[in-house]
C-alpha cells in the first residue's frame, strides 16, 4: 500500500521529468529557429540539420560511431546534428548554441575512445565535420591544407595522387579523422624520423567562441601552441590545418614477423625493448601482442607480431636487423618493397593486393565494442614482468585483448617537452596501447574490470609521478571534470597532468584567456579556471 510520502515522491519525480522534457524541447525549438534566422542562406542551413524526426537522423548519428559501447539505446542522443558545408554554418551553430544553452560536441572521425565527440549527459548537439574534407596538396612547397573532417586515409590518397616521394607522419588507422588526430598529437610509423603530426603543422583556421575565424597570425602563438596537441573540444572548432609534408624514398620496406611463446616471444619482446628506440631513425618496429590458438588443438598461446616500416630498401634493412636484432631471424622473404602510400594500406591491415582506393572508405574494417588505456615505459619490462602480462591474457575476458608497443627515440627525443602540449618525448622507450574488445550486448563490466586489473598490474613497470597517458586514447578512469558547476584546477589536474605533464598549466591559462565562459567543454576538456 502506498504511503502519502511515497506518492508525493513519485509525483515530484514525474513533474521533474516532465519539466526536463519540456525544457529540452524548448531549447531544441529555439535553437532551430536561431539557426534559420541567423543563417545567410536558410535553404543551405536546412540541408545540413538533422533532428530525431528526420528519417536520416539515426544513420547520420551512427555512421561515425567507432566504439559500439556508445551505440546502446541507453546512450544519450543529440537534440540536433549539424553537418556543415562551409564555415558560416559553424559560426551560426556556435552563436545559437551559446544563446540557447546547448552544449556542442565536435566530431571529425568518431574515434574518441570514450565517445566524447558524440555523447553528452546534458542537452547537446553534434557538429559533425564529415562534409568538410577538402584536401589541397602543394607539391612545389611540400605543404597541404586539409580540412578536419577528412580521414587519414583520404589524406594519404590525395598525397599519393600528386607525389610518390611526399608523405605525412600520422596514424596507421585510415578512418581516423584528421581533426581529432592532430588535436591530440598524432603518431604513426614515421615518428622516429619526423616526429608527430603536430610537429609538422604550420598553420590552422579555427572558429572561436565568438564565431570569429582565426588563422595562426590572428589567433596568436599561445592559442596556436595549444591546439597542436592540447586535445579537441576545448578551444574552438578547427576548420582546417596547413601541414608540412615530408620527403620519403620512392621505395620503402615493410615486414611482419610473428612469434608465439613457444618460439621465444618473451625473449624477443625483452630484447626489442633494448634496441627499438636506439636503432636507425628510418626504422620503426612495433609489437602487437594478442591471444591465439596454438598448433595443439584447444590450447591457447600468445602471439607477438613484429610489424615494421623502413624508409629504405630491403638491402639496407637486412644488415641493420642482423646487427641490432639478429634474434628475430628476419629474412629477405619476410620483407616487401613498395611505395610509402602502399605501406599505409599494408600497415592499415587491408588484405594483400588491396588498391589505394581502400583508403577512401570511411567505414573501418571492423567496428568494435571496446575499452582502451595507455601507458609510457621508461625502463625495459623484465621477462618476469612480461610473463605476468601473459598470465593475464590467459583469462577468459582476454579473448579480444591486444597490446601494441610503439617505440620512441629518434626525433621524438630531440623535441623539447614544452614545444607542443604533447609532452611524452625524451626518456620514453615505448608507448603502450591496451584494448579489450567484446561482443555487443555482452556484460561490458567484466571486460572493463579485466582491463583495469591489467592496468593496475602494470603500475611498477611504467612511468610514475605522474603515470603518463596519451590524450588521443581518452580514458575517463583517470578522472573527469565536474558536471555541476566549475571544475577546479586541482580536480582537472588528476587527469590533466597525466596527459600533458607540466604543459597542463599553460593549457589552462590559454583556455581561460580564449574561452573564459568554458563554452567548449566535455568530461576531459581543458577547464577555464585560475591555476
| Overall helicity | 25-40%
Low-confidence stretches: none
Our measurement of the CA-to-CA distance between the termini, rounded to an integer number of angstroms, reads 55 Å
Assembly type of the shown chains?
A: single chain
Number of helices: 16
Taken as a percent bin, the fraction of beta residues is: 15-25%
E-strand count: 18
Given the helix and strand composition, which structural class is it?
alpha+beta
Biggest beta sheet attributes: 7 strands, antiparallel
Structural description of this entry:
There is one protein chain. The protein is an alpha+beta fold and 531 residues long. The chain is 34% helix and 20% strand. It has 16 helices and 18 strands. It has helices at residues 4-38, 42-46, 57-63, 87-100, 152-162, 178-184, 191-194, 216-227, 265-275, 314-324, 340-347, 383-393, 411-414, 444-457, 489-500, 503-514, and strands spanning 49-50, 80-82, 103-107, 124-128, 135-138, 143-147, 166-167, 201-207, 213-214, 237-244, 246-247, 252-260, 283-293, 300-310, 335-338, 369-377, 401-407, 430-438. Strands 15-12-14-13-17-18-16 form a seven-stranded antiparallel β-sheet. Helix 1 packs antiparallel against helix 4 (87-100). It is globular. The relative contact order is 0.11.
SSE inventory with pairings:
Elements: H1 4-38, H2 42-46, E1 49-50, H3 57-63, E2 80-82, H4 87-100, E3 103-107, E4 124-128, E5 135-138, E6 143-147, H5 152-162, E7 166-167, H6 178-184, H7 191-194, E8 201-207, E9 213-214, H8 216-227, E10 237-244, E11 246-247, E12 252-260, H9 265-275, E13 283-293, E14 300-310, H10 314-324, E15 335-338, H11 340-347, E16 369-377, H12 383-393, E17 401-407, H13 411-414, E18 430-438, H14 444-457, H15 489-500, H16 503-514
Parallel strand pairs: 2-4, 3-4
Antiparallel strand pairs: 1-2, 5-6, 6-10, 7-11, 8-9, 8-10, 12-14, 12-15, 13-14, 13-17, 16-18, 17-18
